[in-house]
Amino acid sequence: MSFDLLVTRKLIKITEGILTNTASFIPSATVIRWGIIGCGNVTEIKSGPAYQQTAGFSLHAVMRRDAAKAQDYARRHQVPLWFSDADALINHPDIDAVYIATPPDSHLLYALKVAAAGKICCVEKPMALDEAECQQMITAFEQASKPLFVAYYRRSLPRFLQVQQWLQQGLIGQVRHVHWAFSRSPNPADVAGATGWRTDPAQAGGGYFVDLASHGLDLLMFLLGDITQVQGMAFNQQGIYPAEDAVTACWQFAAQPDGSKAFGSGYWNFAADKRRDEVEIIGSAGSIRFSVFDEAPLQLTTASETITPDNNPIENLALENSALGGFRSEIITSENGGSTTISVQIDHPPHIQHFHVQNIARHLAEQGQHPSTGHTAKRATAVMAQILQSK
After folding, report:
1. Mean pLDDT across 115-140
2. What integer pLDDT is reported at residue 388 of this predicted model?
3. Using H for helix, E for strand and C for coil, what is the string for the chain?
4. Domain 8-16+155-390: which topology?
């Protein structure tokens, strides 16, 4: 994602967080006390601290079946309560909300218990093993009149809200096609025979495809609308674990308000020579390139005449409305004939679920709709199931 002629270079130190408008967020006077079921690696840096640092929230309890590890987590993170039994955490009177951070095969079980206890819930992605389980969870929380969130946190990240803004500004015209190429070399632990739950379809619902591609497919539906038709092929090329390790697919998005329809394609290979993570959205008047996981620059190429004082992708960046200290953006522009290319580097926050959790707080305070709910997450599970039908 580079180019030769640098016309201007601009470094911005961000002091506020993108589109979440946290400066105006007014937390409830009552602190919501969260408990985590499954305080494993994902909660150490990515998510756990976000619940501690969000105004109006506190991380009050953690649970892990290994009591010593639960106690150690609580000590290191200064969490008041720890448990080795999930029911004890869910039903504790001092817990108002539960974040389920276990493998997908237990999401339904724990979510139904949280709903029965009448408490708020956020569940890790993918939401469940299949679409039917997702619907059971949705129904349970609707009957309990409690919200159900899913940790597809890329819907709340500043870098992807910037992509969304460019699309909404019409800077690449009508969207025609999107392609996502993802690959990585085999995991040494898998090669050595020490496979984990992410390659066990009974626990994960599939392999690394389900674990990782769910993020990007959900993000693409957030940016471009629901996927209405999809076909795929899945194979096991290495034969070192039960799940698929090579997947390819093509799909169609729902019609846009102007009646246009976009198509998509992708491949995900976990037995390749090296890591790749490249998305390109191709439009009638330009393109946008970015990575789903890597912090590579966002690159917008657009016809120069589309940039006007009222529609300027540099002067009207969504990131100018943001609120998180220490978070950096760098903007580079170049011109080549009748087109302009703009490259924007937007760093992730230190705790990548920060904006996702912050948006939960805003939702609960009735100051905004959270972008990732049970209803939106179910669609990603349904799309992946259709892709994997051929394996």
Report:
1. 98
2. 96
3. CCCCCCCEEEEEEECCCCCCCHHHCCCCCCCEEEEEECCCHHHHHHHHHHHHHCCCEEEEEEECCCHHHHHHHHHHHCCCEEECCHHHHHCCCCCCEEEECCCHHHHHHHHHHHHHCCCEEEECCCCCCCHHHHHHHHHHHHHHCCCEEECCHHHHCHHHHHHHHHHHCCCCCCEEEEEEEEECCCCHHHHCCCCCHHHCHHHHCCCHHHHHHHHHHHHHHHHHCCEEEEEEEEECCCCCCCCCCEEEEEEEECCCCCCCCCEEEEEEECCCCCCEEEEEEEECCEEEEECCCCCCCEEEEEEHHHCECCECCCCCCHHHHCCCCCEEEEEEEEEECCEEEEEEEECCCCCCCHHHHHHHHHHHCCCCCCCCEHHHHHHHHHHHHHHHHHC
4. Dihydrodipicolinate Reductase; domain 2 (3.30.360)
